[in-house]
Amino acid sequence: MPPVRAPEEAPTPEPGPSEEGRGTPVGRRVVLGMLGLGAVGVGVGGAVQDKLDSVLASVSAKDPTGVVGLLPGGGGFRFYSVSNSIPHRGESDYRLTVGGLVDRPAGYRLADLRALPQTRVVHDVQCVTGWRVPKTAFSGVRLSTLLDAAGVRPGGTAIRFNCFDGVYTESLTLDQARGADILVALTMNDKPVTAAHGGPVRLYVAPMYFYKSAKWLSGITVTKDVQPGYWEHYGYDVDGWVGKSNGRSDDPTT
Ligand SMILES: Nc1nc2c(c(=O)[nH]1)N[C@H]1C(S)=C(S)[C@@H](COP(=O)(O)O)O[C@H]1N2
Ligand SMILES: [Mo]
């Protein structure tokens, strides 16, 4: 069997969705202009950084050159949103629901999540399209903590994740979900996860390709079977272990 290829590498007869290559490439002048704007972001508060991130996101979504990775605040990350937008939620309107095959369904506000034990994981981030950001810190609540609080019923074998962009979904098996390095993350590099990076709450699945780390996390549902996520419908592996899936042989992340 040939290795499964990422859709952006596949010779698709029709334009299909891919992580990169959406829209028209942004010219070099525009990106260099961004460098000037980027300087404004140094030493400013969260709201301005969020603004900057959202501009970065809209530029880098169309810029496969990687120049955006050099921008202050970019940090080597590419920004992705299959919904072509950056949704915003905060203290008053953010909710994370935990439901499905559980004894005690729950709804968490940001303050509720912050009040639970926090775990910090430092690991390399690796996207299936090839880019890697070494030693990135995420912290938040272990997914296993939320699952234990909810009480998974017999028959529950997998988790479906929903996002408040209304489009993206992801999945893990229950065994994978219970890993100590699987976080419902509230911070990235010790600052609140910005809107562009999927804040206020994103999933962080350290040992897998970054597509498993759903941004703008809003729902955790325990299911009977694995329900493949957004990119998995376009050929990505459900088990997205770095270096051992998607026909790739990336060096192990640490
Ligand atoms: N909701 C949502 N989550 C998502 C995505 C997305 O488009 N929407 N893209 C995934 C992919 S393919 C990657 S590589 C990372 C990118 O995260 P970043 O934008 O913080 O770099 O988010 C993942 N989670
Ligand atoms: Mo990705």
Shape: globular
Helix-strand sequence: HHEEHEEHEEHEEEE
Helix content: 10-25%
Number of helical runs? 5
Give the mean pLDDT. 82
Ligands present = ligand MTE, molybdenum atom
CATH architecture of the domain at 88-254: Alpha-Beta Complex
Strand order of the largest sheet: 2-1-10-5-6
Protein name: Oxidoreductase molybdopterin binding domain-containing protein
Domain Oxidoreductase molybdopterin-binding: 86-231
Biased composition (Pro residues): 1-16
Region (Disordered): 1-25
Provide an overview of this structure.
Residues 1-25 are annotated as: Disordered. Residues 86-231 form the Oxidoreductase molybdopterin-binding domain. It holds the Pfam family Oxidored_molyb. It comes from Actinacidiphila paucisporea. This protein is an alpha+beta fold and 254 residues long. The chain has a domain at 88-254: Sulfite Oxidase, Chain A, domain 2, CATH 3.90.420. The chain contains five helices and ten strands; from the N terminus they run H-H-E-E-H-E-E-H-E-E-H-E-E-E-E. The protein has helices at residues 28-40, 46-60, 110-115, 143-150, 174-177; strands at 96-100, 106-108, 119-126, 132-142, 158-163, 169-173, 182-188, 191-192, 202-205, 217-223. The two termini are 29 Å apart. The relative contact order is 0.17. Mean pLDDT is 82; it is low at 1-16 and 21-44.
